[in-house]
Amino acid sequence: MCQIGISTNRFRERRDFVLQPNMMEDLLLRKYLQMGQGLWRVVRNQQLQQQYSEQCFLQRDGEQGQRMGPPLAEPLQQHRTPQCQVPGADISYLLRVRKGREEQGFIDLEMLPPELSITILSYLNATDLCLASCVWQDLGNDEYLWQGLCKSTWGHCSIYNRRLPSGFSYRKLYLELDEGSLTFNANPQEGISYFMSRGILVDHPKEIAKFIFYTRMLNWKMLRIYLDERRDVLDELVKLHNFSNQFLPNALRDFFRHIHAPERRGEYLETLITKFSHRFCACNPTLVRDAGLSPDAVYVLCYSLILLSIDLTSPHVKNKMSKREFIRNTRRAAQNISEDFVGHLYDNIYLIGHVAA
């Protein structure tokens, strides 16, 4: 049996437990309270500030009314019912309110704006979404919702660009994408094979690179192992980066945010820096011409930035490298680079931090 079938059976085994009303409410309420705590705090603070300002306003107007007489009574009544107190427009009220005690249920997420509903549900994994669909059955059958969840988590899949057959279900696709991601995080080759067997991905380096670039569910350690084995996919992944008008340390941080650097120096790190150097120069022809940069010079600067990052951030290094020392050592290796440019590199690392953190 396929792995997604195993995960579905595992969910069915727990069906009798999760569908008990009280336990189901406590589980989902705890999860949504954790996710929406920041939103509720902001909304509540706004309400308290507005109530406080209204009380001060009414108190001040009441004092004026005592001095000026009864004609101000009618205008005061208009301030006692602000429009923001309408329950239908109060998001915090919608998130906290329950149905009647006899119904033992939650508010339907369809009462919220669609963007907020998708944002809340995007924090859940496949199992939790199945649990939530047992409570909100209308949302569980909403294909537009599942389509938004698929594309917000896995930004690019080959199946998105094909004509979908009749009866296609984005809910089933979401479960397959989640199962494939979990498989990839255990074994990268098996995960990619799973996506291809389901027709989600096409066996082409560019398609695989786009899938990796726009997906936020893949384990970076397993991704590093996979890219070390598939250099053709790595080449296409580097081409997806746009470093135009970016300062060199910031571009290097962006690069290592998608393609994590190895823990130790070796052939793979040298390959990454070489590919980054050529891509950075290709994206910044004006900077290359004006500053006298070349792929070899950028290669040297990248190594200097990595070593400087380790020197300034490591607690084991007592005597930190000074700006003067960094400029002197770097210009020995890259003589065509100006002293001011190298000084700005040092300032960036000193103020922002490690380039490969």
UniProtKB/TrEMBL annotation:
InterPro entries attached here?
Answer: F-box-like_dom_sf (IPR036047), F-box_dom (IPR001810), FBXO8_F-box (IPR048003), Sec7_C_sf (IPR023394), Sec7_dom (IPR000904), Sec7_dom_sf (IPR035999)
Please state every residue range assigned to the domain named SEC7. 166-352
Q: Which PROSITE patterns match?
A: SEC7
**Pfam families given in the database record:** F-box-like, Sec7
Q: What Gene3D superfamilies does the annotation carry?
A: 1.10.220.20, 1.20.1280.50, Arf Nucleotide-binding Site Opener,domain 2 (1.10.1000.11)
Source organism's superkingdom?
A: Eukaryota
Q: Which PANTHER family match?
A: F-BOX ONLY PROTEIN 8 (PTHR10663:SF372), GUANYL-NUCLEOTIDE EXCHANGE FACTOR (PTHR10663)
Return the protein name.
F-box only protein 8-like isoform X1
- Species source reads Carassius auratus
